[in-house]
# Entry
Amino acid sequence: MQSRNLKCSLTVAKRGFYRAANIIFGKIEEVILQLISSKCIPILLYGLEVLQMQQYQLNLLDFVINGFFMKLFKTRNIRMVQLCQELFHFELPHVQLARRRKVFSDKLCVYMLIS
# Structure
């Protein structure tokens, strides 16, 4: 039997497209968080390691990041935000600041010893 129309199934092509698109989509959050870590967190924490900050100030810095995570992952559930932060190994500013303060303090001690 002859046919004037060519028929083909697009199932395989669609499946391949969705598979590739889902891989890319799954990486978007990861890329955004890498950019936030490398570009935005340094701006947020710039110079703060030299200051003695109150707990409410540290909480305010953490609130900025928690709010960003809520927006990125479209949730208001703080437990979900904390799980996302754990999953992506994203440290809150108060943790990063404590580490930066330790590095600053160590460098200051070394500088004072050689001066």
User: Anything to note?
Assistant: Helices lie at 11-45, 55-72, 78-87, 93-114. Residues 11-114 form one domain. The mean pLDDT is 90. The chain has one domain: 11-114.
